[in-house]
Design brief:
Shape: globular
Helix content: 25-40%
GO molecular function: heme binding; iron-sulfur cluster binding; metal ion binding; oxygen binding
Distance between the termini: 20 Å
Order of helices and strands: EEHEHHEEEEEEEHEHHHHHHEEEEEEEH
CATH superfamily of the largest domain: Globins
Structural class: alpha+beta
Number of helices: 11
Strand order of the largest sheet: 6-7-10-9-8-11
Domain 2Fe-2S ferredoxin-type: 1-89
Radius of gyration: 24 Å
CATH topology of the largest domain: Globin-like
Keywords: Heme, Iron, Metal-binding, Transport
Binding site for heme: 265
Strand content: 15-25%
CATH class of the largest domain: Mainly Alpha
Number of domains: 4
CATH architecture of the largest domain: Orthogonal Bundle
Protein name: 2Fe-2S iron-sulfur cluster binding domain-containing protein
Low-confidence stretches: none
Length: 373
C-alpha cells in the first residue's frame, strides 16, 4: 500500500515493501545514510506525524524513542508520515559539573557526570553547549567502561570559550549540556604497518588464515549488525580482499590491489561498538580453529592499527593525492545505452535522462523519481 511521506519540503509516495529510506532515495531526496540496515543510525529521523514500526525504534535509546525518533532504513510505512531531520537540542546530553580545574599548562579539566548512559572512549571529542557559533571542544580522558565520572580536557584556547559558570573554581552541581562523543579524523591516511613475516609462517603460509577467514565471513554475513555493511559484496569477494590485504600487511609483498581501510571505508559510519563486535567475532573464530592466543594477538594488532582510519562519526570524502572526492548526493545523467531502472526494473532507453545516486550508482527512471515534489 502506498503512503505519502513529507520531508523538509519533499512529498513522495511509498511503494509496497519499500522502506522510508528507499522511498526517499528513489525519489532523489538527498539524506544522510550509510549501512541501510539499522547498525550505524546515520539515517536517524524524527516522525512528527504518523506511525513508526517497532523494528525501526528497537535499537534507539529510550529518550530518543520518547521523542519519536526512528530509523527510516528499518521502517516500512504503515501510514502517511511527516518527518524531519534530528534536532540539535535533542542530541545533547545533560550533565552535572563536579569540578573545573586549571592545569599547570593552561588547559582546563572538567569532571562531569552525565545524566544518562553515555558510551564513550578515551581520546574522543565532546562539544560543550554554549549557544555560540563556535562551541568549545574538549578531549575525553576517561573511559565509560571503568569511570563513573567523565573527565575531559580543554586546550587553553578552547577553555577561553567556556562561560564563567564553568571556569576553574566553578560551583559543584552546575548543569551543562554536551554534544557527542565524536571521533576525530586522522590528518593522514595510515601507511602499511611494519611486516611480520614470522606470523605468516605460523599461519602455515596463509593456509590457516584463509580457513579462518572463510569461517569468519560466514558469521559476518549472518550477523544482523555487521551484514548490512556488506550489501552488494559477495562473500567470496570479501574473503579474497581481506586475505590479500592482510597478507600484504604481514609479509610486505605487494599483492593487494584495493584501497587501504581509510578510502575503502570512507563513507561507512562504523562505530567503536560495531568495530568491537567485529573483532570479538574474529577472535572467537581464531580460537575455534585452535590458534594460539599469541598468534591471534599479533593478527589482531594489525587490524587494531587501522581502527582510527575505519571508525568515524561522519563519512569522509575519498582522497586521491591532494584531491578530495565527494560521492554522495544525486546527479542527472543522460544514458549512453539502454538499461533497467534499479527501482521498477523497467527499461530506460538510450538518450533518456535518469537520476543517479553518485555513491550507490543506482538510477531512477523519470517515473520513479517523479514522485518527489
Amino acid at each position: 500500500m502506498s503512503y505519502t511521506i513529507e520531508y523538509e519540503g519533499h512529498v513522495v509516495e511509498s511503494r509496497d515493501d519499500e522502506t522510508v529510506l528507499d522511498t526517499l532515495l528513489r525519489s532523489g531526496v538527498d539524506i544522510a545514510f550509510s549501512c541501510k540496515g539499522g547498525s550505524c543510525h546515520t539515517c536517524l529521523m524524527q516522525c512528527q506525524t504518523g506511525s513508526t514500526t517497532e523494528p525501526s525504534r528497537r535499537s534507539l535509546p529510550e529518550y530518543l524513542q520518547r521523542l519519536r525518533y526512528f530509523l527510516p532504513c528499518r521502517c516500512i510505512p504503515q501510514s502517511a508520515m511527516k518527518l524531519r531531520r534530528p534536532q540539535p537540542g535533542d542530541l545533547v546530553t545533560n550533565c552535572m559539573l563536579c569540578e573545573s580545574i586549571l592545569l599547570d599548562d593552561g588547559r582546563v579539566s572538567l569532571l562531569i557526570e552525565p545524566m544518562r548512559t553515555l558510551n564513550y572512549r578515551q581520546g574522543q571529542r565532546l562539544q560543550i553547549v554554549t549557544g555560540q557559533a563556535q562551541e568549545p571542544a574538549a578531549q575525553i580522558t576517561s573511559n565509560s567502561d571503568r569511570d563513573v565520572i567523565m573527565a575531559v580536557v580543554l586546550a587553553a584556547a578552547e577553555a577561553a570559550k567556556l562561560p564563567e559558570s564553568l571556569q576553574p573554581g566553578a560551583e559543584f552541581g552546575i548543569e551543562l549540556q554536551v554534544r557527542g562523543p565524536f571521533d576525530e579524523r586522522p590528518p593522514e591516511e595510515l601507511p602499511y604497518p611494519e611486516p611480520d613475516p614470522g606470523l605468516w609462517e605460523l599461519l602455515d603460509g596463509g593456509v590457516t588464515a584463509r580457513r579462518v577467514l572463510e569461517a569468519f565471513y560466514v558469521k559476518v554475513y549472518a550477523d544482523p549488525v555487521l551484514a548490512p555493511f556488506f550489501q552488494g559484496v559477495t562473500k567470496s569477494r570479501a574473503i579474497d580482499k581481506q586475505f590479500s590485504f592482510m597478507k600484504q600487511c604481514i609479509t610486505g609483498e605487494k599483492i593487494y590491489m584495493g584501497d587501504r581501510p581509510r578510502n575503502a571505508h570512507h563513507w561507512m559510519i562504523i562505530t567503536h561498538e560495531v568495530f568491537d563486535r567485529r573483532q570479538a567475532l574474529m577472535q572467537e573464530t581464531w580460537r575455534e580453529h585452535g590458534v594460539a592466543d599469541e598468534v591471534i594477538a599479533r593478527w589482531v594488532s594489525i587490524e587494531e592499527y587501522f581502527r582510527p582510519d575505519i571508525v568515524k562519526t561522519y563519512g569522509w570524502p575519498r582522497q586521491v593525492g591532494d584531491q578530495l572526492i565527494h560521492n554522495d548526493g544525486f546527479s542527472r545523467e543522460m544514458l549512453g545505452e539502454s538499461t533497467l531502472c534499479d527501482h521498477c526494473q523497467q527499461e530506460v532507453l538510450a538518450g533518456e535522462t535518469v537520476l543517479m545516486h553518485r555513491r550507490l550508482g543506482t538510477i531512477s527512471c523519470k517515473h520513479c523519481a517523479s514522485s518527489a515534489a
